[in-house]
Amino acid sequence: MTLLDLPPWNVVLGLVAWLLVLAFLPWWLGLSLLLAVTALLLLLRPRLPDEHARLLRWGLRWGLPGMLLSLQRALGGDALAWTIALLGALTGYMLVVGLELWLDRDLVREPLQPAGTPQAAPAEEWPGRLMQSALGPPVELIELDVPQWRDAGSELPDPWGGHARYADGGYVFAGRRRIDGVAARACFSPDGRWFAAPVARGAGVLLWDRRHDREHRLRRWLLAGWYREQPWLQRRPEAPPCTLHQVLGTDEVTGGED
After folding, report:
1. What is the distance between the alpha carbons of residues 15 and 3, in angstroms, rounded to a whole number?
2. Whole-model pTM?
């Protein structure tokens, strides 16, 4: 997320109201509110749903000019007051940009292309497209198997035998093995080694490596598909997917690598 990201029209009215509230509050109270929003983003970001974090970021961007308008009025509204307010805007938005970069430090970013490099043709959405992997041989093409998601309205057939049954916020497998804290939607990898389900709260996915009995709870990641019986993940449906090993190196998870 960058400062150029614009909120949807139905959110703009609320943000304008927030700007006006800070403009008429005492500047020190508005500054305290902006510092509280910053503290929430820094301390609770791993547990905040993406939509809530996005609203807090917009609140910082739109609230800063309101607080500065209040400050320049408190300073007398003369040329010196406007100069201080403009310097405050410059400093404040530099700090907001730094905060945005810090919060997005774990995003998987596409490498920059050198000048003069021909642009690739627009790619269709994942999963279901072909990509040339930078990890394997130069000519290797990777085609992901689309996850076959099933809702928990009925028992989920287990490729390793039996069924997985959803009850009390988790899936129960043959042998009484239980996976808790997941939503009522799940799928298996093609040969059954991996079990995947969305986490119950917030955005993310749980992956259970059944061969090694290891669980990985990945915040803000989506399951893109399977390749050679390994999960590939992505941040957004239009983003390029990456391997589980890449994700384990960039995000906090429960469990370990193979």
Report:
1. 15
2. 0.46
3-state secondary structure the chain: CCCCCCCCHHHHHHHHHHHHHHHHCCHHHHHHHHHHHHHHHHHHHHHCCHHHHHHHHHHHHHHHHHHHHHHHHHCCCCHHHHHHHHHHHHHHHHHHHHHHHHHCCCCCCCCCCCCCCCCCCCCCCCCCCEEECCCCCCCCEEECECCCCEECCCCEECCCCCEEEEECCEEECCCCCEEECECCEEEECCCCCEEEEEECCCCEEEEEECCCCEEEEEECCEEEEEECCEEEEECCCCCCCEEHHHHHCCCCCCCCCC
Report the b/e string of 210-221 with b at 16+ CB within 10 A. Answer: beeeeebbbbbb
Cα end-to-end span (Å), the chain: 32
**Would you place residue 226 in the very low, low, confident or very high pLDDT band (cuts 50, 70, 90)?**
very high
Which residues is 233 bridged to in the sheet? 223, 242
Tens digits of residue pLDDT in 83-111: 998 998 898 889 888 887 877 776 545 44
**Phi, psi dihedral angles at 225 (to 5 degrees):** 165, -170
Place of tokens 């259970």: 208
Nearest 5°: the CA angle 145, 211, 171 is: 75
Long-range contacts formed by 27-30: CB under 8 A, 24+ apart: 27/67, 27/68, 27/70, 27/71, 27/74, 30/63, 30/66, 30/67, 30/70
What six digits make up the tokens of 228?
């050679």
Phi-psi region of 50 (alpha: psi -120 to 50; beta: other; left: phi over 0): alpha
Using the predicted structure, report yes or no on whether residue 112 has a pLDDT greater than 90. Answer: no
